Amino acid sequence: MRGLNAVCTSHFNIFNHSENSFFTPGAQLANIARVKPDAPAIVYVSPKNIESVMTWRTLETLSNRIAWYLLEQGIGAGKSVIVALPNIPTHIALAFGIWKTGACYVPISDRVPRRNLLEICECVSPSLVITNRWKPTNYFALSSNELKELCKNYSEGMPPDVLAVPNLANCTGGTTGKTKVVQQDMPAGESDEGLQTWFTLSGMRFEMRQLLAGPLFHGAPHSVAFNGLYCGNTLYMPSCLDAKSIVALIKRYQIEYVQLVPTLMQRIVKLPNFHPEDLGSLEVLCHTGGVCSADLKREWFEIISPEKVYEIYSMTECVGITYIRGDEWLTHEGSIGRMPCGSISIRDEEGHELPIGEIGNIYMSWNGDAPRIKYINVPPLESDENGFKSVGDIGYVDEDGYLYFTDRRSGMIVTGGENVFAAEIETVLKKSKKVVEAVVVGLPDPEWGHRIHAFIEASEPIQEKTLIKYALNYLPPYKIPKSFEFVDEIPRNENGKIVRSKLVEQHLNNSSYLKGEKNGE
């Protein structure tokens, strides 16, 4: 699919004038920097709303210096670098620098708790950790400023071009509560064919004004950001990612392309004094990272014409991908699209294929051209003889092959575009001496898609704020439950397993009863 062996002199990629259609990140960056060295590559907006610009020439030379420094430290092919930085220009330059050495880029949250950082380090065995917060002991670690100071006297020229394989490792919470590391055993970069496919999926084109509206350690914002840079886009990078700031930035910079999660889409339309014309410059809205309700989608069609709205469904495990454009969605309302280069199969619990329209487990296959994925510390997903795999998501297909998403995999909650695993939160809550049992679920929520809700069985009274403060020692803020419910006893079946469905049913029944009382019913 990536066309490593394709050789030609005329390319879809307007910046590539070499014989091979495949480009590495370093080669593409050098090509763009030659064409427009003084044009803005990244426009960073600080917490105080102060703008700073990194040109293509500066981005290339900084990433080259970083690469030479890393190479001198013995960091190259077969090595990995953990990047625990916020969305700042140095983060982008560092990623390019890592790939130029042939090493693997491992982005994680800059707010990751110490215990999780150590767990990831033990799994990945990084040659270097870049963080502006706590530095893990027994690992070589630098701050972003220390790195820039150390590499400032190195060559501005690009090191010999190499393939970075693996190019990326994603770290996410597993269903066991353990951090799961999924590595992409593919070279960093892209080909003409890959770019054309990306343009079809996402609506992107060359040289757009693009807003980064999500953290770089998350899959979708990462892919959109770097694919945008490969296309010569100017990447506007705000430090604040709240709805009000995003609308203001789109208006201020006349942004043409943005990728949003449905939670932000919901918050934007609910802003006081929101004016749809402030988003008038948008040529493409691409949304992914959670369920977008039909009502919310229609509301956005009133702001942006349907043919400018793209939806992508994918996952860290790269089992498959679907996409759908807004005008196509109107003829298949509620669908998340079709798989452009593969097949979808809906199966029951025994693995038997289900008829059209019946809900079951979503299985997907790339039909022999699957991305190469390696699981570092967990077993790989099971695959049949035709390459079909499932991450446990539930849905159905219609007679035209369009996929409809019903629910996420068991134990995972998609909240505000983030994938959060219940077991990880439960493990933390149960560390408290006062908590006998904890069950975490995702409840439907108009703002978050799903709200993290914790059922607590306690040995003695404990306040919500105490649990929140305790959990923040182990978890980043987006994984903290937004609501708590204290119960006398967590229900279990004959085998001693917790009956989650009963807890949720009781909660919803109680909520309906209280709502009825409030309405005088």
Could you characterize the architecture of this molecule?
By secondary structure, the chain is an alpha/beta fold. Among the domains are: 340-410, Luciferase, domain 3 (Roll), CATH 2.30.38.10; 414-518, ANL, C-terminal domain (GMP Synthetase, Chain A, domain 3, 2-Layer Sandwich). The protein is built from 14 helices and 24 strands. It has helices at 25-35, 56-72, 89-101, 114-124, 144-151, 192-202, 219-230, 243-253, 262-269, 294-301, 326-329, 422-429, 464-471, 500-518; strands spanning 40-45, 51-55, 80-84, 104-107, 128-131, 141-142, 168-173, 179-184, 209-211, 234-238, 257-260, 284-287, 309-313, 322-325, 343-347, 360-365, 373-375, 394-397, 403-407, 412-415, 418-421, 435-445, 449-458, 483-486. Helix 7 (219-230) links the parallel strand 9 and strand 10 (234-238). Helix 2 (56-72) packs across helix 5 and helix 8 packs across helix 9 (262-269). It starts with 24 loop residues before the first helix and ends with a helix.
Strand segment count: 24
Share of helical residues? 25-40%
Rg, rounded, reads 23 Å
Tell me the name of the CATH class of the domain at 414-518. Answer: Alpha Beta
What's the architecture of the domain at 414-518, going by CATH? 2-Layer Sandwich
CATH superfamily placement of the domain at 414-518: ANL, C-terminal domain
**Main beta sheet strand tally, sense and closure:** 8 strands, mixed
Principal-axes geometry comes out as globular
Unreliable segments of 5+ consecutive residues: 1-8, 513-521
Strand content: 15-25%
Distance between the termini: 60 Å
